[in-house]
Amino acid sequence: MYRPLSVGHPAEIVCVARGARPPAQISWWLDGEKVTSRITESTAREENLTVSSLVFNPNKHDNQRNLSCRGDNPQVPDSVLEDTWVLDIHFPPELDVKINKQVPVLEGTDVSMTCVVRANPPIAELEWLKDGQSLGPPARRDTRNRTLNIASTSVEHKGRYQCSAINSEGKTFSEPKLLQIHYAPRCHSVRSRVYGVGKTESVSVACEVDASPSDLSFTWALDGAKILASEQYHTNGTRSVATVSPRSPQDYGVLMCWASNVVGRQREPCTFRIIPA
């Protein structure tokens, strides 16, 4: 009975021809192409016996190919006999994660990922991971459902996703696939700071935000109405620093900053209280 072969484990396959006189000549064929290497052959003329051995190194691409041995006697027309084996090559799972939406995705949209599996024999377990951490117990009953669905994506969903699978040949992991989430800016810290400043003093107030992408423009305002001139602040990446120099009571109050990127303007400003020292 033919048995499965495993990738990485060479196997000796023997073909025997009996009864031909003179003894038969044996050749090996793989999907119609003659195999010429790693073959040894012996004959026993008194028994009209030919034995040919092929050392076959299985490759995953050989799965379901036809391996044949042919015996024939050149001195006898139409004497060819052939035995064919449909190769069953076992190999560990080969995995690839496909994100079913153009990346990066906008925050709040739905996204799904598919674990593309190629394995023989079929996988017995499938697991999803994010940044190297399991997203739940492996699926053992329904490994045909190989899709991870994320509804209403948020910043917390960004990261590197993998799938892992097991069959009798081993456990493997896909290459990590980065899920990028684009979102409007938000304050790096929600806490409002208080600055005590004298009328003859100046203070630098730093506004730092999280955003993706990080190509930003900033707007500063005092009490939501008095817009600061561009020369009163400077910006570097996700950080903008304003210089405040109170000269009158109207120069005190709540200083606010907003950042904007291609996704939009941040909903809630970062706030700083400027009070007399």
From TrEMBL:
Membrane-related topology note: Single-pass membrane protein
UniProt KW Endoplasmic reticulum keyword: no
Encoding gene (name): HMCN2_4
Pfam families, sorted: C2-set_2 (PF08205), Ig_3 (PF13927)
Keyword Membrane: yes
The protein, known as: Hemicentin-2
Residue intervals of the Ig-like domain: 1-88, 93-174, 176-273
A GO CC term attached to the entry: membrane
Compartmental location: Membrane
Chief subcellular location: membrane
InterPro entries, per the entry: CD80_C2-set, Ig-like_dom, Ig-like_dom_sf, Ig-like_fold, Ig_sub, Ig_sub2
Record key words, sorted: Disulfide bond, Membrane
Chain ranges passing through the membrane: none
